[in-house]
Amino acid sequence: MELKLSTNIVSQVDVARMVRELKSLEDFFIATKVRPAGSSLQLPKLTRLLEQVAKENNYNLLEEEHRKALSQQLDMVLGNAPLLHISFAAEPSPGALEKILVWFRTNIHPQALLQVGLQPSIAAGCVVRTPNKVFDMSLREHLNDQQKFLAQLIDVADKKYK
Amino acid sequence: MNVGGLVLVIGCILSATAAFIWLAMRLGPGSDNSKAKQLTDDLQKTADTDVEHIFNNEFREELRNRGRLHFEKIIGENAMFLQQDLRQTTSQLNDYMRAEITRTLQEEFKKYEQSIVDAKQLALDSIEKTITTIEQQRALLEQQLLTQSESQKAHIVQSFEKEMTGIVNHYVLRAIGNQIDLSDQLEYILAELESNKTAILEDIKRGA
Is residue B137 predicted with pLDDT exceeding 60? Predict the structure, then answer.
């Protein structure tokens, strides 16, 4: 069964952070087993992201088996999930980025991860880079495609005013 | 007594003297040579005395005065004639000089006029040649300019069409910049993603 990724998990960095949190949680439980009686323990702080993923995938983080399974799933995501680079002209809002991420996970791959970048020169739209291709869906590219049409318009206007 | 009579008297006296001298010489020297010689001397003395008697100082003065008057008269007449001749000659000379100068001037003027006409014609020919050359050069230059102008125009139009779209794109991109919010672009982005969905899927599968 594939791991369901929350829309809050966008990039490999988020997945790697959850992996690190799981390891620190594992270390904590190992430390509790070997600790002397009566010594104080400090619980590791978990991010809401990890809790949400565990909940959505019915993992109990208090159980070792579940933690291991989740860790394995996350490793698989890191190793196998498709990574797409997407660039915008400006920093995208969380809501907009979430909608785009949902589209990718719905239409492309359920575990698709995005690496967001900035390219102010594209003005509007986005540029998506897959492992082998670049899909330029920016306004810049759209304007470049319309160059001939613009030249025709100017030519017609020029003939009209002559 | 007029001068003619006086001259006649002097001529007679001189003729008589010459006759006596000739006669004495004719008789020649001989036994009476000394006698003849004496006679001759006497005659000579007598002639001299008569001459002195006839041609005394008054007579000579009279003759001198008459000669002076006559000479003055002749001189005056001759001076008048000379003056008339001189005037006439001067007048003729003036006419001649005037005519000569006029003729020479006319000839020179004609030559000068001809020279001017020739120079004018030469200048006109030269100007015509220059005009012809200039016209040819102008036509050639005009043709060259026209060709260059057309070429430049075509080049500018081509360059304009080539660069214009880039300029417009650059202007639009600079103008709108970051002014369009991503939320407003979301529909466009999703539509574009939808249109590229198949290609993205294929590339993801191939990459995996």
Answer: yes
| Domain end position, chosen among A55, A79, A103 | A79
Which helix (H) or strand (E) element contains residue A33? helix A12-34
**Within a domain: A19:** yes
Of A123, A132, A154, nearest to B176 by CB-CB distance is A123
Query: CA nearest A57: which of A46, A69, A45?
Result: A69
Q: Indicate yes or no: CB of A123 within 8 angstroms of CB of B190.
A: no
Residues A96 and A69 in one domain: no
If asked whether residues A20 and A69 sit together in one domain, one would say yes
Task: List, for residues B106-119, the tens digit of each pLDDT value.
Answer: 999 999 999 999 99
Structural domain of residue A115, as residue ranges? 84-145
Q: Tens of pLDDT along B176-203?
A: 766 667 777 788 888 888 888 888 888 8
Q: Do A65 and A40 share a structural domain? A: yes
* pTM for the whole structure: 0.53
Q: Give me the residues of B, 136-165, that contact A with CB < 8 A.
A: 161, 164-165
CA of A53 vs chain B CAs: smallest distance (Å): 24
Residue A72 domain-assigned (yes or no): yes
A121 touches chain B (CB under 8 A): yes
- Are residue A17 and residue A71 in the same domain, yes or no? yes
Last residue of a domain, one of A79, A108, A134: A79
Q: Domain check: are A88 and A121 in the same one?
A: yes
- The number of domains in chain A is 2
Q: Angle B3-27/B33-54 helices, nearest 10 degrees?
A: 170
Tell me whether B198 touches chain A (CB under 8 Å).
Answer: no
At B30-71, the pLDDT tens digits run 555 778 888 888 888 888 887 777 778 888 888 889 889 998
Residue contact A124–B168, C-beta within 8 A: no
